[in-house]
TrEMBL record:
Residue stretches making up the NAD-dependent epimerase/dehydratase domain: 10-252
A Pfam family hit: Epimerase
GO molecular function annotations of the record: oxidoreductase activity, acting on the CH-OH group of donors, NAD or NADP as acceptor
Database matches in Gene3D superfamilies: NAD(P)-binding Rossmann-like Domain (3.40.50.720)
Protein name per UniProt: NAD-dependent epimerase/dehydratase family protein
Natural source organism: Marivirga arenosa
Keywords, sorted A to Z: Oxidoreductase
């Protein structure tokens, strides 16, 4: 049972990020002082959306320069905080060197933030943004899970630096967090493990996130012949932010939380856009046959290997989200609301 004093500042690492933006908004709306750790506080363009949110809220925001890979970089930002949100981590499929571009920032960043928590006497709880990728790599892993369903007890054992290195980085980073947590008794650790995150972005830069890449292909004609029928989980960014908030302030919050609203697939995502946008945009309405994808998939994208297709095509994604509903009281938005709100963002940005 950890009680967090709302009059004390709260640290958010990677504060300009997609999920972090909505979390910062929630904290500010609750009248909390946010210590926003960002790479370059002098880049006014990157923090403008947070300044605007702060202007209309009861809370206040202070910026601190911090670098994931620099020891002691979070010392000043963490001073006086009882609650730390570590959201900063790379999410991209565009990398040259998986060790340098994905694994080091994820693992060393987590290590730096949590080691700083050990040195900061005020810290009582750390909430780390992990991922369902730390639980599974491919949809086929759901089949192999106990009773065919992913739960918080399951860990990803199939990712590697050669197969789905992004997932591998999330496993290593979360394991590092639990390892550091177990070696001390000053603060408790909670992890939020979202599936694919969509929903409106608070800043234009977030539209370049990997989540939006998938949505763009559904709406810009790239996939108009059909989508790969890949099983995935989906959750709204606003619900992920709420999950972080509750994980920070609910005294009984503990352990890992699968944060996934819908067990779904790419075709169902597209189908949810049809009623509102189907007449005006080339949104696919069928799945491509497996044989065709096995043939052309590897030509279309470096990440779409035959192994990926074999492990994900026509295989349902199944995750159990009962823990987060029961313990944190999270009520997830309907899929159609998430999909329509996300697509509106792409239209406004002129990306479809």
């Amino acid at each position: 049972m950890t009680e967090i004093d709302k009059t004390k500042p709260v640290l958010v690492t990677g504060a300009t990020g997609y999920v972090a933006g909505w979390l910062v908004k929630k904290l500010l709306d609750e009248g909390i002082t946010v210590h926003a750790a960002v790479r370059n506080p002098d880049n006014k363009e990157k923090i403008r959306h947070l300044d605007e949110i702060a202007k209309d809220s009861k809370g206040s925001i202070n910026y601190f320069k911090a670098d994931l890979l620099e020891d002691g970089s979070y010392a000043e930002a963490m001073k006086g905080c009882e609650l730390v949100y570590h959201t900063a981590s790379p999410f991209t499929s565009k990398f040259k060197n998986p060790q340098k571009d994905l694994i080091d920032p994820a693992v060393k960043g987590t290590e730096n933030v949590l080691e700083q928590a050990n040195k900061t006497e005020s810290v009582k709880r750390v909430v780390v943004t992990s991922s369902c990728a730390a639980i599974y790599t491919d949809a086929i892993d759901c089949k192999k899970a106990p009773n065919g369903v992913l739960t918080e007890d399951v860990w990803n054992t199939t990712a590697s630096i050669h197969h789905q290195p992004y997932s591998y980085s999330k496993v290593l980073a979360e394991k590092k967090a639990w390892e550091i947590n177990e070696q001390q008794d000053q603060w408790d650790l909670v992890t939020i493990n979202p599936s694919l995150v969509l929903g409106p972005a608070l800043n234009a830069q977030s539209i370049t996130s990997e989540s939006y890449n998938i949505l763009k292909q559904i709406g810009d004609g790239t996939l108009k012949q059909g989508v790969p029928n890949v099983g995935i989980g989906l959750v709204d960014v606003r619900d992920v932010a709420d999950a972080h908030y509750q994980a920070g302030f609910k005294p009984k919050a503990s352990g890992r939380y699968i944060t996934s609203a819908h067990n779904t697939n790419f075709l169902e995502l597209a189908n949810n856009l049809q009623p509102k946008f189907g007449d005006d945009y080339p949104i696919p309405n069928k799945a491509l046959p497996k044989w065709l994808l096995m043939l052309i998939g590897p030509l279309m994208s470096k990440t779409t290997t035959r192994k990926f297709l074999k492990n994900n095509l026509n295989i349902p994604f199944k995750a159990d989200n009962s823990k987060i509903k029961n313990e944190l009281g999270i009520q997830f938005r309907p899929m159609q609301e998430t999909m329509e709100d996300s697509f509106e963002v792409l239209i406004k940005a002129g990306m479809v």
